[in-house]
Amino acid sequence: MRSYSPDLTPPWKKGTPAPEVPAELDLVVEEVTTGFCGAVLRCEAGTVTLEDRFGKQRVFPLAARGFLLEGKVVTLVRPPAPAPSRPARTASGSVAVPGARARVARAGRIYVEGRHDAELVEKVWGDDLRIEGVVVEYLSGIDDLPAIVADFAPGPDARLGVLVDHLVPGSKESRIAAAVTGADVLVAGHPYIDVWEAVKPASVGIGSWPVVPRGEDWKTGVCRALGWPPNTGAAWQRILSGVRTYRDLEPELLGRVEELIDFVTAPTPPLP
After folding, report:
1. What is the mean pLDDT of residues 46-66?
2. Strand, helix or coil for residue 159
3. How far is CA 141 from CA 128, 172, 261, in A?
């Protein structure tokens, strides 16, 4: 008769596959040959360092079937390297500066036509403007812009940028802009009747901005055409809530605001 010899090979030395477990920080395992039990302190190329509850540290090779995890044989492997994280972005798409403090306000300013314009600029470019120290103020229209510019007295170290709605050739806005534009004043505008229209319709949940008959108040006409309550303040909050980043705005507005920020933050030219 053939004699039977029991297999006395320890389970950690048998050739059967063992699950691979990443040697994550603080994972508690036991090294099979020494019985040393500890938490993973670090894992480097080919080795793992364990620390027991008394603070003693030992370095072991990352051998196949070399450790016990909750009583089961495993093969520790080096954890995958974390994917490089992309830098956080502000709503305007600029690289965020965590913990950055607001800069002391510059002498230069950006003026916009109304409160809605100011709120939209703040929501998308607010972080950038605080870092640059640029204050945005609204004018309640631009009919008095020449007098406002004269009172501001712009100069090389106090430039003035103005964002205008419906700045198209032949319009009232274009004539006013031409009267005040100079070396230290930049008037830039978008073609839309109101800044509402500079928000992409899809971001508001509509197919398109409606055409309002000439002679009718544009904002009131928009609310009527879209079936919204005749409350333009509530309508604007509904529109503004759909704006999260620069992607929710039309390029014609994006480019003009960026242009104005660059203009008022440009370095002061040296004295001759």
Report:
1. 92
2. coil
3. 25, 12, 20
Distance, CA of 270 to CA of 134 (rounded, Å): 21
Q: What is the pTM of this model?
A: 0.66
| Partner residues linked to 75 by β-bridges | 20
Cα-Cα-Cα-Cα dihedral of 183, 195, 262, 271, to 10°?
Answer: 20
> DSSP characters for 20-71?
EEE--TT-EEEETTT--EEEEEEEETTEEEEE-TTS-EEEEE--TT-EEETT
Q: Locate tokens 């605080």: which residue?
A: 130
- 8 A C-beta contact, residue 199 and residue 242: yes
State the average pLDDT over residues 77-96. Answer: 77
Position 53: which residue type? R
Is pLDDT larger for residue 181 or for residue 97?
A: 181
Residue for token pair 């904002």:
219
Q: Say which residue, 142 or 154, is predicted with more confidence.
A: 154
Determine the Cα–Cα distance for residues 195 and 157; give it in Å rounded to an integer: 29
pLDDT tens string 157-202: 999 999 999 999 988 888 998 889 889 999 999 999 999 999 999 9
